[in-house]
# Entry
Amino acid sequence: MSSAPIRVLIAEDHAVVREGTRQILAADPGIEVVGEAEDGQQALELAGQLKPDVLVLDLRLPVVTGIEVARRIDSYAPDTRILVLSAYDDDDYVFAAMDAGAAGYLLKTAHGEEVVSAIHSISRGEVVLQAAVASKFLRSHGNARPGADYYEEKLTEREMEILRLAALGLRNKEIASRLNLSQRTVEGHLSHTFAKFNVGSRTEAILHAAARGWLVIPNTS
# Structure
């Protein structure tokens, strides 16, 4: 029995780009486009109604910006993961999007198959960054931010083991099964990791560990 398609919501204010993205995604039998939004507020409202698996998000949206949508998405659809599809690779955009909890960042110069592949990867819990974006992010985050000391406390062997599995796209339940632990124990280790890194999400934790050379981000284009 085949698995259910990945349910995708597209948030893009340019109709031509939105239509083109929908056509590219609709051609993949493993993806179902369930809705389209032309501004940030509509994106949040539709996310709350439709509960998509993945939100393909432009950052420069009217009414509510894409960055703000990423920050607020948990209140509307906590299980929805975000793939940013942007024309901009400026540091401010990339860092703000990833710090807001986006699971992936592609430029609009990406080929259609890259976008489709990224959606499949993100739906499995992986982090996806286009090569140029990943290099920019990791170079910047190789050193702690001014005033931050969250790299002083090293991860334990178990915390590192769990973070590596998270970077491979395993969800908490799958990690627990793999390591013969309870899901609550896995969640506890991840919480400790977040506290040590001073971050609030798996995506940020994975990126910061990669910046230190402790693991490799999978599926970068």
